[in-house]
Amino acid sequence: RTVHSLRAQMSTSGSLRFNNIYHKRTVGEFRLNDHGVKWRGENQSLKEVSIPQERIKKLEWSAVGKRFQLKLLLRREDENSNQKLAYFQGFRSHILSEMSKVIKEKWSRDVKQVKISTKGWNWGDLNLKSNAVQFAVNESRAFELDFATINQTTCSKNDVNIEFKDQTVPNDHEILSQMRLFIPSIDEEESSSSSRSSMTAQRFTDALTDKANLGYEPVDLVTSFKEVFLITPRGRYQLDMGRDIIHLHGKTFTFSFKFKNILKLFLLPTPDEHRLFIVSLREPLQQGQTQYPYVIMRFAEDDEIEVALNIEQEEIDANYAGQIAQDMEGPAYDILSRVFKALSGTKVFMSGSFESSSQQKCIRCALRAHDGFLYPMEGSFFFVHKPAIYFQHHEIRHIEFMRLGGKGSSSNDTRMFDLVITLKKPKRDSVSRKRESVFSFTGINKNEYKTLFEFLAPKKSILIIDKEEHVDRLSSTLGAGTRSRGRPRGESDAYVNRVRTEREPQKSKQDDMLDDDDDMSSDDEEFGLNETSTSESEEYESRSEASADSDSSYNEDDEETKKRKPEESSSSSSSSKRPKNDD
Q1: Contacts of 164 (CB under 8 A, 6+ apart)
Q2: At residue 79, does pLDDT exceed 70?
Q3: DSSP secondary structure, 145-206, as one string
Q4: Quick check: 512 pLDDT over 60?
Q5: Cross-strand bridge partners of residue 440
Q6: Could you list the residue range(s) of the whole structural domain that residue 302 is in?
Q7: Which tens digit of pLDDT belongs to each residue from 271-306?
Q8: Residue 34's CATH number
Q9: Torsions phi, psi of 384, nearest 5?
Q10: How many angstroms separate the CA atoms of 117 and 39, rounded?
Q11: Chain centroid to CA 545
């Protein structure tokens, strides 16, 4: 490990300057003068930290490893400010005398030396200060947790679980993401006869939530949805929706995220008469090592509720006209999606014009060992639920239909096929947390081959491997099947004819599309999506003008699909009597 040299310089004005001082894991230059403290990172893109001496309430000096740390206890700038502590570390021991002298002369303050416990004990006393949680062993500080670094805390019996906010660090660095404290329970007689505190795990959790401002004020509560079933994170939760934040309260864990963290909203039907409401997050929820980039809720289509919103009518008329009302009733998925859309200002996207052989908006398949539903939409694919994977068409390098059967194929190959999607750039899997670029959706019923190919083939942004072979396969299959139903010999399917006319220009562009990764590059975040996609299905707002009880408003085809239907009438008539898929 490289040891950086540390030097202090005294300028003519009497200020101190130290190099190689760390602040929030970043090295930089630390300055101390008459006006206060300044820190500037070596990376010029980082914001300079400037703290006037009037804001500094106390100064503490303590050992951190082989170096020393200067902690500043700050006064609040205003009532809404949460910054109370500032840490600078990397000082050598002999700097203390020189720094204390300057601070005494210029600020008329003393630097307090704090003794750190080095016994290595894992039991001691918990103290809640005004700005941090302190753990002490024999009245010597072992460690402290700044309130500003805590994301949330939950309680389960005697365990207190503290989760920390995500930090941007290099891949080879390790960070503390979670800490669990055990607070033993004691009876009243033991508490009265002992000097031990009567603090229980639940009381400590409530006190920490209050002091660290992890909760919310009751006046901020807009409405609550009780007993909502979530697929991820799994369990039944109570949704408390505030003006700018949502709290998910479960039996074991509690999650929170702000509306500005919402990237997209989806409302998708399932074959078993349920609706999935999916919240895509910019920064995923985290429980230990598990991340949840999507919050997936499931509702029965016949589940109806009544909700009262804690919003004045004047505010509704001014900001949410036509979206929500003070008193709402109807299907649970409809009410929840409308409230989410209004408060977050985010569009709700729905399934497009695709219909499977059994008239569903999705197809059943498996991703690795997990069974789920794949939703082919107008501009994207969405697989739910484990792992939930979303990618738009412009992120796809190519698509390949595999295991379609032939000579030497097994009986299973004649009943099932696979859809392999290869992306231009790897995407992280929320379950394995590995970056992958090839996703194989297996076990798709053979009845879906024609419907899926006909949906994907006209889309110019998607390259299908061996597209002409699939056209010939469908042409021969349809020709044999439709002549017996009255189609004259030699008359081919209208859709196949149209694809054949497009085959040559499409074929000439295949190689260019494979290599041109930058033409449709995406600025999506790791788990993110583009802000809008005009090619996707109509958003919820345009379809919700009808009554909330009308399911037809959720399944209307867009105009482009309606124009295409006359051309596909012959092929659709030939498949109208196909047996439904039992899956």
Answers
A1: 149, 150, 151, 175, 176, 177, 178, 179
A2: no
A3: EEGGGEEEEEEETTEEEEEE------TT-----EEEEE-----HHHHHHSSS----HHHHHH
A4: no
A5: 420
A6: 218-346
A7: 988 999 999 998 888 776 778 899 999 999 999 999
A8: 2.30.29.30
A9: -130, 140
A10: 29
A11: 30
